[in-house]
Amino acid sequence: MAAISLSNPEGVHAPQAAYSHAALVEGPGRRLVISAQAGVMPDGRISAQGNAQIDQAFQNLEAVLRANGMEPANVVKLTAFLTDRMLVTPWRRRRDSFLAGHAAAATLVLVSGFADPRFVVEIEAEAVAA
């Protein structure tokens, strides 16, 4: 039977509701399910700039991966939600930089908004390791 560990690693803002930043499933292999990461800095600040929020969301994602002994090459699925079509190109550039040639499965969805109206991006991910 798989063991499930929920975590909120250092280097990522504290959850604003009843959720965990990550759920690590360990058994014969390890599967990490990462809650959507917004552009929230570890101290809780949120930039008004879309590109800065995208960068911070990826920094948060990387912090969660590393806290669980993984890296971008372990990502098997990314799902991104953007509020502005003009952010698609910056999102793709930053995603490509983050993955460094690793072509994980991906979904990009345009949405009308998030629970916090200051957010312009959220990124979910799943990663696996032996």
Automatic annotation (TrEMBL):
Pfam families named among the record's database cross-references: Ribonuc_L-PSP (PF01042)
Molecular functions (GO terms): hydrolase activity
Highest taxon, organism lineage: Bacteria
Keywords recorded for this protein, A-Z: Hydrolase
The protein's Enzyme Commission number: 3.5.-.-
Enzyme class (EC, first level): hydrolase
Protein name in the entry: RidA family protein
Organism annotation: Roseomonas elaeocarpi
